[in-house]
Design brief:
The structure is a homodimer of 213-residue chains.
Chain A (H helix, E strand, L loop, with lengths): L5 H19 L4 E2 L1 H8 L3 H9 L11 E2 H11 L6 E6 L3 H7 L9 E8 L8 E2 L2 E5 L3 H8 L3 E4 L6 H10 L4 E4 L12 E4 L6 H9 L9
Parallel strand pairs in A: 3-4, 3-7, 4-6, 7-8, 8-9
Antiparallel strand pairs in A: 1-2, 5-6
Amino acid sequence: MSTIPTATISRLVTYLRILTSLENQGIKNTSSEQLAEEAQVSAFQVRKDLAYFGRFGTRGAGYTVPTLRRELRRILGLNRPWNVAIIGMGRLGQAISDYPHFEQYDFSLKACFDNNAKVIGQTMSGHQVYGMDALPQVVKEKGIDIGFLTVPQAAAQAAADALVAAGIKGILNFAPVVINVPREVHVEPVDFLAGLKRVSFYIINPGLKEELA
Amino acid sequence: MSTIPTATISRLVTYLRILTSLENQGIKNTSSEQLAEEAQVSAFQVRKDLAYFGRFGTRGAGYTVPTLRRELRRILGLNRPWNVAIIGMGRLGQAISDYPHFEQYDFSLKACFDNNAKVIGQTMSGHQVYGMDALPQVVKEKGIDIGFLTVPQAAAQAAADALVAAGIKGILNFAPVVINVPREVHVEPVDFLAGLKRVSFYIINPGLKEELA
């Protein structure tokens, strides 16, 4: 199998969300046309995205909702629990550790880390805060897969290096800086202000807002 | 003009980011094919997205980078400053008020609000924290256009109602709950854990990761 565009993976996440909504409504069958309309892409794009992973559905009959949903969860690795650690228990790290929908997709917060002696050993959101020196051992003992990097910009690369050295394979990077990691580690940058650039469009064009069904 | 798909607006933001990068590299001309490749959509999609807003570029000759970039900034409303207020100065509100790249796109934090008597009147990240009762007056005096809703889930709808009553036309909603607003107000939900669902894919499929140029 060749490499897969990252945009395809983002769209699979969108298709999964749509399928979950259809399943919750008790709808049993769907089509590339319906998924395309809901995801605001072309039906050709839906079929092309799915074709990277095999053959789903039947020509003319479309897709069975629970089957395709299960397949997408398997493809995306969402059919198993993932253990998460937060690196950097400043304001952002604390805010995220409080996030109520954290475990929505089988992601479980297992540990928090900081390098500030004042917070190491404290309990935050029900989790003991470890020092960064404990990272390799805690990652191993608690089976941590993914790190949330919520340290200040200047500390981000060193913290990412420590995560990589500890064997972490996925990083959600909240620091507004590009971090360098080996190819086998995946970094997902989080730009929580991205939506701001759409808000201004809708403020100046209130009449162009799409009607939601 | 009819309504515009929200996905088109998101893609315009992506095209603008690509054009800014091309301009920074000193590249003067581009094409729908190049924009499509960078944005991971089809060239037809690029042309269709732009066609909602007029005719750009020349058949066969493509687009002039600075011109198309300027047009997209105008279309997205990014050619003027926008004034922002944060509603809810808990951990998340404080973390966002500290965000160093805040003013990258001419968005300017003008005021912070909370309903906790302990923080009202205090200065946080250089901004005085106002009580929610001051919202209508401060929004008017400081010309605030956009509100960041960083209150707890249970307080989100009431805070949104207050923003709407004060005349705010755009809301970035960080609370993990759907809020109801009149049609002329645009709400952009922020799901800062969305990237998590892509991380798991790349952890289980390290070999399928796209090579970045």
